[in-house]
């Protein structure tokens, strides 16, 4: 495995760990019955983190470069 691929894998692993932490935080907020807007704000942050990670994978992974534009739009629900 090339050095740049290892760096990318490490970056992906780090991002996923942060997302996992965000999700655990959301679960805790729900269990604590925090205000709806606070929970929704955190859900929005997780969605943005996932979208950013997905975008990065689409740019960097050769297997993703062959995906059609229509498929990508459907995947991200882009009009």
Automatic annotation (TrEMBL):
Pfam families tied to this protein: Trns_repr_metal (PF02583)
GO biological process, one term: negative regulation of DNA-templated transcription
CDD domains: CsoR-like_DUF156
GO terms for MF: DNA binding; metal ion binding
Name of this chain's protein: Transcriptional regulator
UniProt source species: Candidatus Wolfebacteria bacterium RIFOXYB1_FULL_54_12
